[in-house]
Amino acid sequence: MGTDNQTWVREFILLGLSSDWDTQVSLFVLFSITYTVTVLGNFLIVLLIRLDSRLHTPMYFFLTNLSLVDVSYATSIVPQMLVHFLAEHKVIPLVSCAAQLFFSLGLGGIEFVLLAVMAYDRYVAVCDPLRYAVIMHRGLCARLAITSWVSGSVNSLMHTAITFQLPMCSNKFIDHISCEILALVRLACVDTSSNEIAIMVSSIVLLMSPFCLILLSYVKIISTILKIRSTEGRKKAFHTCASHLTVIVLCYGMTMFTYIQPRSGPSVLQEKLISVFYAILMPMLNPMIYSLRNKEVKGAWQKLLCQLSGLTSKLATR
How confident is the model at residue 4 (pLDDT cuts 50, 70, 90)? Predict the structure, then answer.
């Protein structure tokens, strides 16, 4: 291909979910509400863990990290979507597009590594409870959390650099809700086989490796639970993992479906819906899952509400 056609675009146009004005207004209202709930829910979880000393454990340290990742991931995509719902020209500058790809891809990778770390935490809690405090000490927890953030960020930086080195010719219409890597690669006017291979390899490393660790952890956990003689003991042991297991099932299902096979993967519409699920629904659902299915968190909420109620009563009587 001649060099005249291999030009670098300075901005992109996101086609989004719909071109119908009424639909866009409805989506703006719906996504504004869900984004607000996401931000409030995740920050309340972080605040609750911070305020209640009973939640100062490795499990809730990692949950704090997960909540921060979720709200950051949603923030990297949703505000731009909301602006574009009401904008006539849905333009995103090249630099903003690159930043969005870096943060969304990086935070997504961090979340999957964190889920593997949380699975290891549950494995130690169930399979070696007497040594739990010794094994999951503060230094190890910090190193595991840092490893999660660094690995996701490095992977994202690599893919962002590789993707934006591709010549886009005159293609600047991104048929997606955000600057998503597969949608950007499709714009290139050169052979992208090496990019697709890189996406598949990093997907295997950053998705399948943590998944294998999670699978191994839960095989050990289930094996240990089945050896517990009392029914009550089994229920208690399983209950400590139920919230985490629910999040894993939701997170891993569609991500593997999207990224493991870029060429024969889902349609553009399916990719958009999957992105909406991860940007809008998952960050909102995670705090709900951990709140509704976790006795310790529910107990902490009740304690906090009682304290606030008592404080309100005292202020009212003055």
Answer: very low
CA 262 to the chain's CA centroid: 20
Residue 23 dihedral angles phi and psi, to the nearest 5°? -65, -40
Tell me the pLDDT tens digit for each residue of 146-157. Answer: 999 999 999 999
Mean pLDDT for the stretch of residues 212-218: 92
Taking the C-alpha atoms of residue 186 and residue 317, their distance in angstroms, rounded to an integer, is 65
Helix (H/G/I), strand (E/B), else coil: 14: strand
| Average confidence score pLDDT of the chain | 84
CA dist., res. 163 & res. 185, Å (int): 7
Task: Tell whether the model's pLDDT for residue 290 goes beyond 90.
Answer: no
* DSSP per position, the chain: --TTT-PPPSEEEE--S---HHHHHHHHHHHHHHHHHHHHHHHHHHHHHHH-GGG-SHHHHHHHHHHHHHHHHHHHHHHHHHHHHS-SS-EEEHHHHHHHHHHHHHHHHHHHHHHHHHHHHHHHHHH-GGGHHHHT-HHHHHHHHHHHHHHHHHHHHHHHHHHTTS--TT--EE-SSS--HHHHHTT-SS--HHHHHHHHHHHIIIIIHHHHHHHHHHHHHHHHHHH--SHHHHHHHHHHHHHHHHHHHHHHHHHHHHHS-STTS--HHHHHHHHHIIIIIHHHHHHHHHHHS-HHHHHHHHHHHHHHHHHHHHHHH-
For the segment 67-73, the average pLDDT, to the nearest whole number, is: 94
Cβ atoms within 10 Å of 83's Cβ, excluding its own: 12
Comparing C-alpha atoms, which of 172, 176, 187 is closest to residue 269?
Answer: 176
| Residue whose tokens read 């490893």 | 147
CA-to-CA distance for 23 and 270, rounded, in angstroms? 18
The identity of residue 195, as a single letter, is: N
Q: What is the pLDDT of residue 239?
A: 76
